[in-house]
Each structure stands twice: as structure tokens, then as C-alpha cells.
Amino acid sequence: MPAVPDEDALRKLISRELETIFYEKAEIAIPVLVFVALTSVKRITAGLNNLAEGVIRIADPATPLSYRLQARDMNELSALGNGLNHFMNRIEPTVKGLMRYPTD
């Protein structure tokens, strides 16, 4: 009859096996998580960069009042871009009206 390991030896064996399994899974999971994090950050910052470029362009005096942001290029920030476009739609007629009747 084979010898039955004592409780302490069994715990150590199970602990080593679980540790081995953990490290094997971590070798795969960590690079995947880093890749996902980097691509997510890049995608989010791309939307922020597009929004910033659009606002800079709107603020340029040479840009016509009819210019609108391309909100589809802003990912999570498209609601902000759409809100800015809506604001520009409301303010454009007012500004054009003021330009027709300059005050001297």
C-alpha cells in the first residue's frame, strides 16, 4: 500500500502547484492586459486630441462660423463635440446679426 503524505506535505504540494498555475497564466495575461491598456489609452487620447484640434480651429478667426466638429472622430467625447456643434448652431445667427449691424 502506498504511503499517504502527511497534511503539511500535501499543503506544500498544492501550494507549489497553484503557484505554478498562477505564474503560467500570468505570463499570458499580463502582456495581453498591457496591450489592451495601451490601445485603450491611445484610442481615448485620440478622441481628446481630435476635440482639442477642432476647438483650436473653431477659435481661429479665419475659420468660418459655419465650421462644425466631426464628432464621430472623438469616441467617448463625441457627446461633448455634438454639444459644441449645437452651441455653434445657436450662436451663429446671433454673431452674423451683430456683424451686419456694427456699432460705431
Defining key terms:
104 residues; mainly alpha; rod-shaped
Can you describe what's shown?
The protein has one domain (9-100). It is rod-shaped and about 105 Å long. Helices cover 73% and strands 0% of the residues. The protein has helices at residues 7-59, 78-100. It starts with 6 loop residues before the first helix and ends with a helix. It has 104 residues and is mainly alpha-helical.
Large-scale geometry: rod-shaped
Q: What's the main sheet like?
A: none
Order of helices and strands: HH
Number of strands: 0
Strand % is under 5%
Q: What is the tally of helical segments?
A: 2
What is the subunit arrangement here? single chain
Gyration radius, to the nearest Å?
A: 30 Å
Helix content: over 70%
Query: Which structural class do the helices and strands define?
Result: mainly alpha
What is the distance, rounded to the nearest whole angstrom, between the alpha carbons of the first and last residues?
A: 110 Å
Question: What number of domains?
Answer: 1
| Mean pLDDT across residues | 88
* Low confidence ranges: none
SSE inventory with pairings:
Blueprint: H1 7-59, H2 78-100
